[in-house]
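Dear all,

This email documents one entry for the complex benchmark we are building for the journal club exercise. For each entry we list the sequence lines for every component of the assembly. Then comes the predicted three-dimensional structure of the complex as a token string, followed by one or two observations. Please use this as the template for your own entries, and keep the labels exactly as they appear.
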Amino acid sequence: MKKNYQFELEFKVRDYECDLQGVVNNSVYQNYLEHTRHEFLDTAGLNFAQMYEQGILAVVARADIQYKYPLKSGDRFVCRLNTEREGIKYLFYQDIYRLPDEKLCIKACITTVITIGGKLKVLPEFDKALSI
Amino acid sequence: MKKNYQFELEFKVRDYECDLQGVVNNSVYQNYLEHTRHEFLDTAGLNFAQMYEQGILAVVARADIQYKYPLKSGDRFVCRLNTEREGIKYLFYQDIYRLPDEKLCIKACITTVITIGGKLKVLPEFDKALSI
Amino acid sequence: MKKNYQFELEFKVRDYECDLQGVVNNSVYQNYLEHTRHEFLDTAGLNFAQMYEQGILAVVARADIQYKYPLKSGDRFVCRLNTEREGIKYLFYQDIYRLPDEKLCIKACITTVITIGGKLKVLPEFDKALSI
Amino acid sequence: MKKNYQFELEFKVRDYECDLQGVVNNSVYQNYLEHTRHEFLDTAGLNFAQMYEQGILAVVARADIQYKYPLKSGDRFVCRLNTEREGIKYLFYQDIYRLPDEKLCIKACITTVITIGGKLKVLPEFDKALSI
């Protein structure tokens, strides 16, 4: 049975994202994961850049990324996510699947916190946006 | 008491590594960690690019990165590491400290495996190089 | 009157592409331009990664990029191109326009050459693909 | 006879900077050039990030980069520069040489302008710093 996700975003690997091993460099997946989170938040009415300008910082506290299968030049893929709140932590469970065969490539858990004026906060708008 | 490390490498933050929050982007720390591992291996006589050309792939299986404190434009810092073998897994414990105040910024554990011709291997040269 | 182009590709700025000035970093435009060229070539039946594996290298000899207007977080834009051959040089005239207002952001001329076995070549398939 | 330069900075290629052709990706040279300019300005008492916070923007108006020879994994190199003012434009002539053989790899001219509150300015401190 296919897992349910709250949000997904499609991408295509760009050649400059590949390294000398001919596959997407490990650090680039964090770019994919970040862009997916920001697009998700934006869809939910929370724009990352605007929040920053208002002094609301969404900060990554921990990134735990399992590399299951490498993506290569030209591969299409989808980045899917689910969210959860654990006290003051917002967890993003993010998985990357290659298309069209749905091969699991990345399984990640990104822990974020929100700070306003340098203080950790739970943000009601964030809870609402994340349907938590 | 200061922890002992097997290897360390000094860096300075470059402005293009900072994002719109004015701090080093989360993905860039993986670049720092990777470069430090590759320099460590190179010092031990194992060149990453040459291994790749010989069909020996050192592959990251998991990256678990705790973001403790952000680095900013112009910050100097040092990336230190220790290694350990756990069955077929080579673990790199990698910490980043800001200089000169030794503030802990990143605490990471990078799990790597070695594949030769697509098969997982324990490499005696690797064990020796890592003094495991 | 609107200029005619041989190919165009749409993008959206990703937050990690912006630097501490809050705009897309200058080097990132080269990524956009490269990806557009590679997608154009791919559409024409010339896959960059496959050419590389066959020993056919498309190499940038010169990049002349005029920065007319900066792109920001969340901006949508289109990268358009025209091609021309000048002796052994393939020129890509590439312009980036912000969407939906068609504001000109980048005006570039990228000069590329093809080498096979280290020697400069004119490639009939390339001429055909580029409709030159 | 060796050319004279106002400033130089040494680097070493990092593996993540190389792309699937096994050489430094074209866009990465702009990172090297930018970092060298910023270090040069910093040495002259003009910190890029601080200027930005004060509303003084140093902006690239044009980058003209000739790719003479590719850098590879592990290569050491030096980025050298000279400056010149032409009306309101500050020109940075920047060349990259591989070490230790001094092979010319990049020959670039980067045109920058300074804006304060959105208006183009000639900045006496800038002239002084650049010894123009």
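Observations: The longest strand of chain D covers residues 104-116. Chain D has a mean pLDDT of 93.
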